[in-house]
Structures are given as structure tokens and as C-alpha cells.
Amino acid sequence: MSTTVGTALSRSISWIPEARRRQVGLAILIAGALLFPVLHNNDADIDSMANAAAYAVLALGLNIVVGFAGLLDLGYAAFFAIGAYTYGILTSFQVQPDWSTFWEPFRVVGLVSKMAAATGSGSVVHFTLSFWLALPFAAVFAAFWGVLFGFPTLRLRGDYLAIVTLGFGEIVPIVVRNWASLTNGAAGLNGVAAPRLFGWSFGVDSTPYYYVAMCLVGLLIFISIRLRDSRIGRAWMAIREDEIAAAAMGVDRTKFKLLAFAIGAAFGGMTGVFYVAKLQTATPEMFGFPVSVMILVMIVFGGIGSVWGVVLGAFVLQLLQSWWLEDLTHWLNAFGQLVGNRWLERVDLVPSIELIFGLILVGMMLFRRQGLIPATRPQAALSFDQQHAEVRRGGFADLKLQGLGGDVRTGAAALEIRDVTVRFGGLTALNRVDVTVPNGGVVAVIGPNGSGKSTLFNVITGLVEAASGSIRFHGEEIMHLAPHRILAKGVARTFQNLRLFPNLTVMENALIGQHARLTTGVFGAIIQPPGTRMEEKAAREWAMEIFSIFGNRLAPRTGQMVSGLSYANRRRIEIARALASRPRILLLDEPTAGMNPAETLELAEQIKSLNALGLTVLLIEHKLDVVTTLADTVYVLDHGEVIAHGTPAEVRQNDEVLRAYLGRNAQAAAAGVAHVA
Ligand code: ADP
Ligand code: MG
Fold this sequence. Notes:
Blueprint: H1 2-13, H2 18-39, H3 43-68, H4 77-89, H5 104-108, E1 112-116, E2 123-127, H6 131-150, H7 158-178, H8 180-183, E3 196-197, E4 200-201, H9 206-228, H10 231-241, H11 243-248, H12 253-279, H13 289-302, H14 307-339, H15 342-346, H16 353-367, H17 384-388, E5 413-424, E6 427-438, E7 442-446, H18 453-460, E8 468-473, E9 476-477, H19 483-489, E10 491-493, H20 506-513, H21 522-527, H22 530-547, H23 567-580, E11 585-589, H24 597-612, E12 616-620, H25 624-630, E13 633-638, E14 641-646, H26 648-652, H27 655-676
Parallel strand pairs: 7-12, 7-13, 10-11, 11-12
Antiparallel strand pairs: 1-2, 3-4, 5-6, 5-8, 8-9, 13-14
Bound molecules: adenosine-5'-diphosphate and magnesium ion.
Adenosine-5'-diphosphate binds at residues 424, 427, 429, 447, 449-455.
């Protein structure tokens, strides 16, 4: 019955455009938030809502680190503490240095006041930082610590990262507890000033705090959404999805991980200021491990990476704790009296909050793993007609491939690999390899499995270190550059074992490919000046142009999650992603692996057309017919050494190549056949 009502309802509003529905929903939310303290005039409940909002801000901050960038942080409460103590110390009477003329300028701008010392006759400094200044100041200060804590963890992932952040999370409260002269230790700060607005003090009434908290939530939801949908957010998600691929596609991992830590910490620092101003005290217990875990649970509950999800998660769990659990206890007790059950009569749920959180988490893992509001919505599959529309071959004639290729066939070397040796422990994967790729040419590398072909690509793109040698790209040494710098120089690659960003859409994958060519920074992403909007629009248009190389294989699927696409299409997306970076040379590692003969032929034609546009190609390929049709020059690797190179025809007749490829017997057989013939 209820489902029919639901369907009828959803049908009756389905004529309203999605954007309008969102606007209406948002307006109702804002109106509700504004009116709540007016309609529900209960100070304790308003206070609970303000607390819930503070936790929502914390959850939004941690969501940037854990949800967007995929860095598991178990010590997030440390930044909450840093913000809290920053404001606490700079507005209470805890620290009182002797007065000197040094403080005079600060007094003039109202940051400190001069006060008679409690003991002795001199004067001391009383810090009087305004709450409104403290918010941005604590945000910046916490961000600084975020970078400092983040730095040692850059090389860590998963469990290791979690343990190190856990350590930082523990260190901060311990320092706070023991540095009594600064923080008053376990006793906590006293007399923290309440915020003032136009000379009026907030005092202990919950309502003004409620409105400040709601404004913070609104602001940080806005910032989170703007960041998520920008070049910055895409770089974070690329790191989350596949760190190696992110680096190879031009994302500076160090910079963006630290940026995630810094912005997450800034959110935490601001919340700390708010929280302490509301409580007008701070103790080390307020910022321990359980707080970090609680925020993490809110995120998982609401939906990792989902902005509205984590806000909802924070509100639900916080209000569960402060409102519903008590009510539920009363009902259970009353029910117990009714049925005469002594245990139910006396049960109290409030102290078991951790147990209840645990049960909620287990329930979520079993029944709704992606949280209340999942970050990624399931995509509608293509209709039968769309799927079976005649495959249109890539049309190059009508492409305006500005910025792709462009280099003329000068005959000069684009890529010169000289004497490169790569060792993995005792194994020499490449031994003094020399390869030259002429500008505008197609060079193929062939060789048996394990002969070092992929390693050659890895060393060119900076993913593995060479023991010796030199790699020059258009005359410039690129060997010891970081992967994202090599991409920026114009060297783009695909991977043998697909390394796409699976939980992002086709379009997002192609946009990440352009990361190095775009310039939007944090402020551009949040404020979105016209320049940023234009850049974003141009990036999407360029991606569509790249997709059109593959006819209608990718173009109708731009909004689909990559993980749901066919293998051949995923291979095409990898090529599209690499092309999106406007490379001068394209490195393709077995691009036709797993494709059927028709698809192989189609792709070979497309590669040929790309080369005709002026793009230099270095290709690893097993299918010899593809090599023969495409390549000008072939290098044969065996056991990490170049055993032959020349035109495809020359290489095919080389004895050593036959032996490496087919084994001695086969070579004899081939010779036998030749003899008979
Ligand atoms: P191919 O692509 O020609 O099949 P690879 O370049 O992938 O060969 O591998 C060459 C050799 O180097 C293989 O023996 C492989 O096991 C080894 N190898 C490749 N990458 C690594 C690595 N990261 N660590 C250790 N050994 C590796
Ligand atoms: Mg390989």
C-alpha cells in the first residue's frame, strides 16, 4: 500500500525538473533550520542541535581526508583540540606574560588588553582575541599542523597511515594534559570568553550558538561541494582510487595529500573554536580517541565521501545520543513495567552508546554498506537501442584536435633512451637498454613475457628508478623527475593491467587526464570566478572531442561509472584519458589485449589516425599483425636486453628473435619449413 502511495507521489513530482526540486528541498531545509529555535523554544534541545552541527562540521572535515582523498585518519580530533586550545588560550586568563611596549600595537587593534597583575605591582597581558577572528586564525593554524602531521605519513597508506595518525591523535591530548602552564592540564581552561557580536555577548543562551553552528555547516557544505566537483576534488579522488595512476596522469600526490590534510584540519580547527566558545572551558578529555572514532562512525554511517550523507550521519548519531536514547529508555522502562519484565524495567541505554554505535555499524555493513546517502548513485544503463546503435568508427575528418600531436615529422628524436639499467633486487629487469623514438614515428617494443617491456614504460614515466642511464625527451633529461612532472612534459601512458579510476565516471577519468593542463586552485574551485568556469567548460569539451575518436563507443557513456563498462571500453577510456592530457608522445602498453579481432582492427586504425595527426607513439604489442601494420621500427627485448631492432620485416627474419619468441625447436622447425620450401 505504502509503495503505491510512494510511486504516486514520486510520479506527481516527477514533472518538476531535478534542479528545481533540489532548490525547493534546500529552501525547506534552510527555513527549518532558521525556524527551529523559534518554534521549539527548549534551550537543551537547541543546544543538542548546536552540538550536532559542530559534529557535522567535523565530519565534513574528516570526509575530505577519508572520503575524498581516501586517507584513513584515526587522529582527527587532534585538530579539533588544536583549534579549541588556540581560542581558549587566547581569550582566557591562562597565559599572562608581563606587559611591555611590544604588546602596545596588539592592544591598539584589540587583540590584548593591559591588566593589573594579580600578584605584585606590574601589569600583565590579557589576550582578548575576537571569536570571529579566531575562526579563520584557528583554521589556518590547524591547517599548518595538518601539513606537519601529514608530512611524515606521505608514503603510508591504509593500516600504516591509520596507526601513525592514531599516534598523533593520542599525542595532542597528552601534550595538552602535561603542558599545564599553557593549558592548565587536566583541570582544563577556565573563563574562556563567550563570542560577542556588536558589543553583545552570546553568554550561555544556546540560540546564538545554534545559528553560528548552522552557518558553519552551511558554509562548509558549500565549500565541500565546490571542492568535490573541481579539479582539486578530482585529484583527491584519483589518489583515492589509484595512487600510481593518479601520479602518472599528472597529479602531484604530495601536494594534494597535504592539501587534504590541511583543509580537513582547518575544518576541525574552526569547530574547536566554536565548541570551546560554547562550553567556555576545554579539557583534554574532550578530544581523545573516542571522539575521532565517533566522527569516523558518523562518516561511515552517513556515506563515505558523500557531503550530505556525512552531515546527516553526524546529526542522526549525535541526536540519537542526546535525544532519542533517553526517550527510548523511558519507553522501554514503561513497557517493562507493563509486561512485568524486571530487566526491561531498569535497562538504561544511554551508557551503552558505544555498543549501540557498534551495532549500527555492523548493521550498516550488512545491509547498506555505502551509508545513508551513498556518494555514488547507480547509473542508468544504456537502453537497448543505445547499446546496439551501429558502431560509428572514429571520425577524424571532423575533429578539431587542436593541441593533439601538432609536432611535425622532423625526424629528430623525440625520446632517447640510453644505457638504461633497472634492477629489482637481484633481478636485472632492463640491462643497458637503448631505444630511440623519432618525432612523429610509431615504434613498437615486442618480446616474451617478463622481458622488461612494461618496466621500460615504468622507467620512462618515472614510476620505477633506474640504476643508471639517461632518458631524454626532446633533448631534456627526464629520468629523475617525479611522474606528474614527466606527464606535464607531454609523456602520457596507458597501463597493461588497466589502472582506471573505477568509481569515477568516464568523463571524470578524462578530466583527471587533463589535470596538469588545468590551473584551478583551491580558491578558484570554491569561488568559481568566470575564468574557472570557462576552463572547466573547455575541459569538458576537449574530453568530448577525445571521446569522439572512438565513435559512439564512449560518447554516450560519459556519465557512467567506469567499473561497469566492458573491458574493451575500459581500454579505450585509458587511451582517452592519456590523450586528454595533450601528450606529445603516447605510450601504449598492450592496448589491444583482451580485444576481439574486430575491435583490435578498429583500435589499430585509430592509433594510425592519431599518428597521422602528428602524435608520436611508443607501443608494446603482442599481436604481430598490429605491429606490422603500425610500426616503423620494432625493438625486441629479451631478458631485459635489446636483442634486435629494425623494420618489422627485418625483425621477423632475425634468428635471435625467432629463438627468443618460439624457442630453439620451433626455430629449427621454421628453418626446416624454409628448407623444404
Ligand atoms: P613484460 O612487460 O615484458 O612482460 P615486465 O617489465 O613486467 O615484463 O617485467 C620484467 C621483469 O621484472 C619480470 O621478471 C618481473 O617479474 C620483474 N618486475 C617487474 N616489476 C617489478 C617490481 N616492481 N618489483 C620486482 N620485480 C619486478
Ligand atoms: Mg608487460
